[in-house]
Amino acid sequence: MSLRDLLVALFILGSLPICFRRPFVGLLLFSVLAYMRLQDLTWGFAREQRWSLLVATVMVGGWFAAREKYPPVLSLRTGLLAFLVVWIGLGHFFAHGDAPIEWVGYIEYAKIVFIAIFTTALVRTREQLRIVLWVIAMSFAFYGVKDGVQGVLRGGALYIIRGPGGMIEDNNDFALVMAMTVPMVLHLALSERNPTLRRGLKIMAPLSAFTVILTRSRGGFLSLGVAMSVLVWRSRNRLMGILFGILASGAILAASPDEFWERIRTISTYQQDGSAMGRIRAWQVALRMIEEEPLTGMGLRRFQSNYVEFEPNPTEEQLNGEGTLVAHNSYLQLAAECGLPALLAYLALFGASFIDILRIRKEAARRYFASWMLSYCTLFEAALLAFMVGSFFLNLAHFDLGYHLHALVLVFGRVARQEMKDEVRYPVRSRGERGPLVARRAHGFASPGSRQRGFRKTALAGEA
Hints:
This protein has 464 residues and is mainly α. 64% of the residues lie in helices and 0% in strands. The longest helix is centred in the first third of the chain and has 28 residues, at 126-153.
């Protein structure tokens, strides 16, 4: 037993009473365990414990025991999330093949969706939303800064072949998360008034972007490009945003190792790349599975067990039950394993979230020139689009961050609309009116009369 194991165990166990009394704190601790993978920084007994399940149990118990509590938000998105759990569960009874049913995987998926829905019950204010986003962003930025600094010190010679663990253990999954981290930390910086926090967050963005390069992941590189494009397009001064984006991208790419460029060049010659052709074969197998079972699919996590049946030219290794491929595409993975209704519900989640973000942006733009709401709109847009692009090459249909972001967008929409109902504080811009209705200094998370600059006592934006 190492000292690090003991410290992590004491920290988690010591936090449980607080998690029971304040379930919101439990959600924050759960997010740290899920995204930062604090337990994976140890080497002994603490690494093997199911801390997330323990924290979730205490958190939910505290919510039920609380005298004052709010129910989860009932909306189209929470309905779609519940539908996915029910539909995928029913799919077990129509599973294809003789492989055992993946009840453990299904329970894990149900837990992911439950936490997403439960988040809408715990996060009720803009300050709580801000703290949750900070915890998630810092959990990922921890690795972005750590690996990015190591890469800079080694002159780009660092090759990240695996992530911290859990659902981001694969280097491609890790690269996608780092690409999503860039808009998160950047727009958290733009919505902060504390100059120290702003500078720190802005430093994290290029280091996280450089970490994507260090993974040599082609899908991560494409996701990063999408995220950067959204950031540039949504910048207040688009011309300056384009120039800054070109300079920042040039600086990051100039420091990139030669191996990265060799990897990227294979995109144009994918016919000669075994990895790319393997993905294409897996996609073709997935399409055959969808054609065979379009309604219920093969069953959750049964893609590989049915792979040989739908592969016209399986290798001898695959015939012996080894070397089968995964779908390498979240959308085909979901449709092949769980049916087209599950895929449609999954895509509807993204559609509903993007529509909600666009509506909030349009309404907020009528009220002020710069606001935390506009920054958060760009944050969610860039993160979700990066995730959608990266998911086209990865098996992330059951990735917890994707579902959690939909829940946070739902919470964001509710909080933003409540704030904008105050017509005195947030007047509506009349048609044709130009100029800011809220001063630039009200952009960040600080009230005009407050002199506090620390994170704990900083109020939110929009107090103009």
